[in-house]
Every structure is written in structure tokens, then in C-alpha cells.
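Below is how a single chain appears once it has passed through the pipeline. First comes the sequence as given, then the structure the pipeline wrote out for it. We keep one example in the README because the format questions we get most often are answered faster by looking than by reading.
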Amino acid sequence: MNLEPTDDAAKLRLVDEVKNRAKGAFSQKDMPSAELLYGKAISLLDTIPGKAEAPLYSNRSMVRLNLNKVPEALEDAKKCLAVDPAFVKGYHRKAQALQRLSEWDDAIAAAEAGLGLEPANTSFSELIEKTKQDKEKDLADKAKLKTDAQDVTVVLHNASTSRQSAKAATEKNGTEENGMRGYKTRADGKTTSFFHTDISDEAKELIEKAGFGKPTKLDAPIEEKEAKGGGSSWNQAGTYEERGQMKWVKEHLPQALKNLSLDLPEGGSVKITGVTDIDGSASITSARGKRKHVADLSFSVEYEMVVKDDTGRGKYLYSEVTADLDDDFEVKVDMNTDTAASLRGVVDAFVKPNGSGLQPLVTKAIRDLVVEFKQL
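Resulting structure:
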């Protein structure tokens, strides 16, 4: 990877290799390596006029968002759109970065620009709605801080003036301080707080008869109502609510893929044996009478081949699996080193292709699960 090829053809071959390694690093959650590899590919293409690729800047922007390098992610998103103003994901990365920087209006404008290019892409409308809610909360928080600051000034002022009049108040109430600031001596000779008020025996009797001060059980009827937007029953106002669904994903994803298999023409089969490393986020939000399903998942789908006495294993590494059925999943195919040499051609012919063999079956099952998720 440290090679510095001089001719353009060699540079382009190295770029392809670097991009594949970057995708692998990303699928393994190795964000620092992914950032370096995408940067290497970008640097190589910078030396070839007219060969800049918008997806590279978009991908590095996504990686930098994961690394919380938000200003750098925003710069990459801008460069992506400078290379290709019609590259839709560039607008999504730009809007995400601006949202994290609390640039609410600019974030909404970027998301609206992307929505204009892909009106059916629900991720933009969801991002716009979330940004508007964050903006409202931010304004409310700032207003509260301003009010609290004013209240503190009033309290400090009252405290300073109250100290001046404490002695006068003591004399007026006919109490005598016992030498300790804030305390007084009662008529019975006991010391108590200056602000303590004695209750007469007659008052105590009336309070006891009224039942005050005794805990009572409240048997209020529980009435279940459907909340606005399909939220929880307690959320009758229909305000923003978010429910995590990662537990549901981790339970249902392995079940959706466990019976997948493909019979091979020369005999034998390749089948799915498990799903591991499920990570990311999945949630259902409810706000203002609307429900939205949001997901950004990555996971590994393990496969096994058996042809006569030869065996082989490997993984599909899925990333960027969202709730938007129009989005393409990122898929990388790995093969274990202990796979029989005779089966490497089987992998190339029936495991790796995204248009035939086993991979389309896996992708369809995942998309079917996304449809089920959006019906929750």
C-alpha cells in the first residue's frame, strides 16, 4: 500500500485495491483505517486530472462522522458535491454534519436539496423532521438558560437585602436570638430554627381529624387510550417519542436467514449458518401524529459450502442497511483461508455475484425483514 505508481493505469489499479480494503475496514468498524485508506484513494486520484470520484468523499465523510470529526466530515461532503452536484448521498452527509454542528437551517436546506433529487427517499424527510425538533429544543433550552440567569440575579439581590432586615424582623416578631445566627429560643426554652413556626395543640387536633399527613391509597381507574402517531398510551399529546428496536432486529434477523441455501449444479450446496456482529441502530419515532422507522445496521452473514469431501466457509459483510428500501446495501464477501482450493471457483461463481447465486437470496431476505420492520 506504500507503493507510489507513476503511470495512470497502475494508479487506478491501486485505487481499486485501496477502496476494497477501505470497505473491509469500515465493515469491521475499524474507522481510523478506513479514513486513511479512503484518503489514500483520494490522493491517488488527485494526481490524475478528471478522475476524482464523489463516492470516495462521501464515504470518508461518513467515516469521519463515525469518528466524530464533524468539521472534516462537512468539508468532505462539500467536496463530494463539488465533484458531482447530483450525488444524493453527499447531501445527506452534509445535512448530518451541519445538524451535529447545530447549524439547523443550513442542515434543513441541505436535506431539502437532496429530497428534491430523490423525493421518495424518506431518510431526508426524517432528517428534516429530526432537525426541526432539535432546533426547537435548542431554542427552548437557550430561553430557559436566560430565564434561570435572571432568576439567579433576583435571588442574590433578595439574599443581600434580607440579611440587612433579619435583625429588624427578629425584634418585630418578639423573638430572641440565642447567639447562633439563624436560630431562636422558643417560649419553652428549646432552641429551634429561626423560621420555625409553633403549632398550637388545637391546630394539631384539627389537622389529625382532617386526616392530613397520613398516606392514602388512590384507586384511580386506568384508561388505555391510543396515543397520537401510534406512540405510547401515556403520550397523549403526541410529542416526540423514540423506541429502540435493536432487540427486535437481533432476534428476527438470524431467524430470517437461517434456512437459506443454494444447491450447486455440480452437486453439493452452499448455505447460511448464522448471523453475527449485529451492530448499529434501529428505532421507531412518533411525533405530531406521524410514525417513522429509522435504521442503520451492519452485520456478518456466515456461509458454508460442501461439495463431496471438500468444505469451505466465509462471510457476507453487510453495512449501511437502512429502512429505506431504495438504498443499496454495502456488501463485501470474505472467504476463509481454510477453504478447499477446489471450491474457490464455486465462491466466485455462486457466492460473490450480487445478481445470481446465494447473495441475491440473502439480500432479498434482508429486504423482506426491513418491510416487516416498517410494519411494526
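The domain at 241-373 is CATH 3.15.10.20 (Bactericidal permeability-increasing protein; domain 1).

See the next section for the split statistics.
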